[in-house]
Write a structure and sequence with these properties.
Layout lengths: L4 E5 L4 H7 L2 H5 L4 E5 L2 H8 L8 H18 L14 H9 L4 H13 L7 H10 L12 H16 L7 E4 L2 E4 L4 H9 L7 H7 L10
Parallel strand pairs: 1-2
Antiparallel strand pairs: 1-3, 3-4
Helix pairs in contact: 1-6, 3-8, 5-8, 6-7
Length: about 210
C-alpha cells in the first residue's frame, strides 16, 4: 500500500489556508497526514528571508493571497498583525497530533475570520474542535516542543524549503499553487521521471551568485 502523503504547514502562512481547502483532491489518491512545523526554522536552515521580511514583497504577498482567496471563493481575512508568533498554536496542534478538525478550525479562525492566533478563546476553540480541551495544558510541555522541533527537522531532511509543502513519495510540492501538480503526479508518477521533467531535475548551474 502506498505511503501517506505528508502535508507540512505553519499557521503563519495564508497560502496554507488556501491549500487546506484542496487536500480532499489529494485524499482521493492517498491518506494525508497533517504536520505542523516552524516556518522560521525552515528559513534559517536554507538561509532564506521570509516573504514578510522584504517590504515590497510583503505587500505583494498579502495582496496575492487575498486575490487568490477571492478567486477561489475561500473565506479569507488577514489576522490583526502579520507576521505573528505562531508557536502556541503550532504546539497545540502538535499536542493534538495534527487532528484534522483542529487544524481546520485553526485556519478558519485565524485566516477565515481574521482572529489572533494567540487569543485564548481561539486556542480553546481549536482544542475543543478536537474534543481535547485538556490539550491546552500541553502547550508548555517540553515533550510537545520536542515533537514540533522533530517534525521541522524531518521536513528539512525531506527537502522542504517553504510552507505549505506536500511530500509524496519523496517528492516535494510547495505552495497552494502546486496542488494541481501534486494531483497530476498521483495520477501519473512516471510522467515526472521522463522527458523535460527528468532533464530539469539535473540541470547544471550556469552561474552562482556571490553570498
Amino acid at each position: 500500500m502506498p505511503a501517506p502523503a505528508v502535508w507540512y504547514f505553519d499557521i503563519i502562512s495564508p497560502f496554507a489556508h488556501l491549500a487546506l481547502t484542496r487536500l480532499d483532491a489529494i485524499r482521493m489518491h492517498r491518506p494525508v497526514v497533517l504536520k505542523p512545523l516552524v516556518f522560521g526554522a525552515i528559513l534559517k536552515a536554507w538561509g532564506q528571508l521570509g516573504p514578510a521580511e522584504i517590504a515590497p514583497k510583503r505587500v505583494h504577498t498579502y495582496r496575492l493571497a487575498t486575490h487568490t482567496a477571492q478567486a477561489m471563493g475561500v473565506l479569507f481575512r488577514f489576522p490583526p498583525a502579520h507576521p505573528f508568533n505562531p508557536l502556541a498554536m503550532l504546539r497545540l496542534l502538535t499536542a493534538l497530533d495534527g487532528n484534522e478538525a483542529a487544524v481546520t478550525a485553526a485556519f478558519r479562525l485565524v485566516w477565515g475570520e481574521g482572529r489572533d492566533a494567540n487569543e485564548p478563546a481561539v486556542l480553546e476553540a481549536v482544542a475543543d474542535a478536537a474534543g481535547r480541551p485538556d490539550a491546552l495544558a500541553l502547550i508548555a510541555e517540553q515533550e510537545v516542543k520536542d515533537r514540533l522541533r522533530q517534525a521541522t527537522d524531518e521536513a528539512i531532511a525531506a527537502g522542504v524549503f517553504g510552507v505549505p509543502s506536500l511530500v509524496i513519495d519523496g517528492e516535494v510540492f510547495w505552495g497552494a499553487d502546486a496542488m494541481a501538480m501534486a494531483q497530476d503526479y498521483l495520477s501519473d508518477p512516471a510522467a515526472f521521471r521522463d522527458g523535460e521533467m527528468a532533464r530539469v531535475s539535473s540541470l547544471p548551474e550556469g552561474i552562482q551568485r556571490q553570498r
